[in-house]
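Summary for the steering committee. One of the milestones for this cycle was to obtain a three-dimensional model of the protein with adenosine-5'-diphosphate bound, which we needed before selecting residues for the alanine scan. The sequence and ligand used are listed below.
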Amino acid sequence: MGRFSFSQDLGIDLGTANTLVYIKGKGIVVREPSVVAKNMSTGDIEAVGSDARNMIGRTPGNISVIRPMKDGVIADYDTTAVMMKYYIKQAQMKRSAFARKPNVMVCVPSGITMVEERAVIDATKQAGAKDAFPIAEPFAAAIGAGLPVWEPTGSMIVDIGGGTTEVAVISLGGIVTSRSIRIAGDDMDEAIIQYVRKNYNLMIGERSAESIKMDIGSATTPTENEEMDIRGRDLITGLPQTITITAKEITNSLQDTVEAIVEAVKTTLEKTPPELSADIMDRGIVLSGGGALLKNLDTVLSDETKMPVFVAEEPLDSVAIGTGKSIEYIQHFRSHPNVSTRSRSE
Ligand code: ADP
Ligand code: MG
């Protein structure tokens, strides 16, 4: 290695809810919501990341708060590229004054189409990458969670993000079976909004719904029936209104989403070759992504599958860590472009 050949490479977890940037040797240097605030009359970007997120539901008419990723894929191409460019710059500022164009490893959902994948690669290049390589999200999550992905043993990872839930069984550096559903954390928030609207005629915003989920949401009826005061707009009077809601009610409203996740895990297990199932039985299923933090989700999955279930150490960071770490294996991805991003059966 020559004196100036320091590595510029980055790993980016381009998530529906959060975007993270990882630099080798430094770890995660950017951790921001995937949100951009745009002035629609001038086209200017007003804010990116948490500043933009704080504007959700609070903007004047000419400013739009955009979540450019939806269901794990790009919904707004230009805004995604602008957002990534901003985060790459932010990551490199903390790096070196001689920063050149980096190679970027970027995660994509395993169920993505070629066209959707192409859009992620092109947007990454437009954002300033010299070259961009896709890595399947569950594969990255498994590396980040410390699973032995290169060994001849079955590892099962379930990554629950904002827009997608990715289930995969990995062995020998490849995905053996996988399932990706477009049901995850955002759907839980939406279910809470609908429940409160139907039962209390109260309109609440997505950020309120999310904090209710985080505070008192649970995958199964909690033993302690906590309560929470929530504020919104009364649909009949149009005036602000406060109601008290219980953890039990919220849990009920999350049932459909939880069931869909359980179902995705079960279907994947059914398609798993017996040797690998036996490995998973021994080592357990690992949960990553912010959705893994929903209370009691591990217990419910364990009851339903009769397998041990663990939550990754830093579930929100697993994909970013794995995406960054996999840069070291970039040759593997170059020579086997399909090994890790697509399942062998596809
Ligand atoms: P993505 O990869 O799609 O960007 P993340 O892995 O960053 O998603 O997870 C974001 C999701 O996790 C959001 O839906 C968020 O509401 C949810 N989440 C974060 N913390 C918790 C928590 N404590 N309980 C339940 N859900 C959570
Ligand atoms: Mg994710």
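Key point for the committee: The chain has a mean pLDDT of 91.
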